[in-house]
Amino acid sequence: GLKRRPVVTTSLRRGLQDASYPSEQLLISGEKETQDQIYFIKQIESLGNACGTIALLHAVGNASSKVNLVENSCLDLFFKSTATMDDPHERAVCLEKDDTMARAHLLAA
């Protein structure tokens, strides 16, 4: 089959009209220890149609112990600059202002 073992991360895509931001609700209602372990970026309106990029960032950010990023790559630098941020909206604003990540998004989209 197509599945490789071990699976480090997976992503589920839903239409925006179906979304009620359950991940954000989980963060709000979850235990503090769990909240500190989850890497989450709020998909703010100014980021536009970036759901794939956000999903990638969630996957890599939550599997950081299993993923080796290229030193000083745009992903490496982005995660280093947002690792200590607690606010998902603050991470989104950082992504919005990151020209290197914007170029990478446009190349991949």
Automatic annotation (TrEMBL):
Care to name a GO molecular-function term for this sequence? Answer: cysteine-type deubiquitinase activity
Gene3D superfamilies the UniProt entry points to: Ubiquitin carboxyl-terminal hydrolase, domain 1
Record InterPro entries: Papain-like_cys_pep_sf, Peptidase_C12_UCH
Q: Which domain of life is it from?
A: Eukaryota
Q: Give the record's GO CC terms.
A: cytoplasm
GO biological process terms, semicolon-separated: protein catabolic process; ubiquitin-dependent protein catabolic process
Q: Where is the UCH catalytic domain?
A: 1-109
Pfam family of this protein, just one? Answer: Peptidase_C12
Family indicated by similarity:
Belongs to the peptidase C12 family.
In Swiss-Prot or TrEMBL terms, this protein is called UCH catalytic domain-containing protein
- This chain's source organism reads Zea mays (Maize)
